Amino acid sequence: MTVKDAVLQALEQARGTRLSGGRLAEQLGVSRAAVHKAIAALRESGLAIDAVTGEGYRLASDDDSLTAAGINALLDTAVIGREILVEPSLTSSNTTMKEQYLGRRHGFTLFAEEQTGGRGRLGRTFVSPADTGVYMTILLHPTLPLSHLSFVTISAAIAVVRAIEQTAGFTPQIKWVNDVLMNGRKLCGILTEATIEGETGTVSSLVVGIGINLHPNPAWPEEVQAVAGAISDFGKPPRRAELAAAVLNHFEDVYALLDQGKKPELLEQYRERLCCIGRPVTVSSPAGRYEAECIGLDENAHLLVKTADGQVNALSSGEISIRL
């Protein structure tokens, strides 16, 4: 860990209170000059650190800057998010990742302060201006069979629910496949895209895009306002760096279950967070719409629904969607 990272970690752990330069130097085993240099570098990277003579440095408790250093100070991962880039504006973090960064190592994460052309599932627009949410894309180079790739999206949904529970103090649910909801309002969108090797047909990389609404979005169209929600609607929104780090921490934990072949354990975590089990749903498929009851999941994370005549259908996320 560099001196800059160590100083930031200490300030994060004492956020809102002051630490003297001498105490930081002693705690980290470096000179006061090294601490002063680290503070200057952190301020230059966008962190709000003030100082009072005789009292020390303080990272403002209400500072909501989103920086690689700030996120890294809160990470508890081995791989995921250990290389981070934060950009002030991108058309789409997924698009930029695919165009520029597929050669980066497994776990590289790209953040955008805003997205001017964010995308959701089925080509939908994900409106994402600055200061209203957290928008990230995680790069993976998986060693998984093609049949398991949908479980990566499931892992991301579980990670978001756990991160919101940890940082905002309430527990949302998941609407199959990957919509994170609170009281029926959508807080998060997740879009996973694969790059396939043409000759072998194998997956060379996955990009997992995650967009979380922290505050109501003034750019939401009227039809989106009817279904969208934000963390601030249900609790005190966490700092963006805090939420971002929590998502990465939990994603590494959940993804490890898949990587280690513990699919049943992963499915159980997913199943217990689903909001549709035992409820009536409207199924939309290429063949039309029909009413059914959601009765569970199969071992491939397909949703099982029972129609009025007793027929049980297994729904694939790529083909069919549901409404509660």
Automatic annotation (TrEMBL):
GO terms for molecular function: ligase activity. Gene3D superfamilies: 2.30.30.100, Bira Bifunctional Protein, Domain 2, Winged helix-like DNA-binding domain superfamily/Winged helix DNA-binding domain. Residues 75-259 form the BPL/LPL catalytic domain. It holds the Pfam family BPL_LplA_LipB. It catalyses: biotin + L-lysyl-[protein] + ATP = N(6)-biotinyl-L-lysyl-[protein] + AMP + diphosphate + H(+). Residues 21-40 bind DNA. Keywords: ATP-binding, Biotin, DNA-binding, Ligase, Nucleotide-binding, Repressor, Transcription, Transcription regulation. Biotin binds at residues 92-94, 115, 119-121, 186. It is an enzyme of class 6 (ligase). It comes from the Bacteria. PROSITE patterns: BPL_LPL_CATALYTIC (PS51733). Its EC number is 6.3.4.15. InterPro entries: aa-tRNA-synth_II/BPL/LPL (IPR045864), Bifunct_BirA (IPR030855), Biotin_CoA_COase_ligase (IPR004408), BPL_C (IPR003142), BPL_LPL_catalytic (IPR004143), HTH_11 (IPR013196), Transcriptional_repressor_C (IPR008988), WH-like_DNA-bd_sf (IPR036388). Acts both as a biotin--[acetyl-CoA-carboxylase] ligase and a repressor. Belongs to the biotin--protein ligase family. This is Bifunctional ligase/repressor BirA. It comes from Butyricicoccus faecihominis.
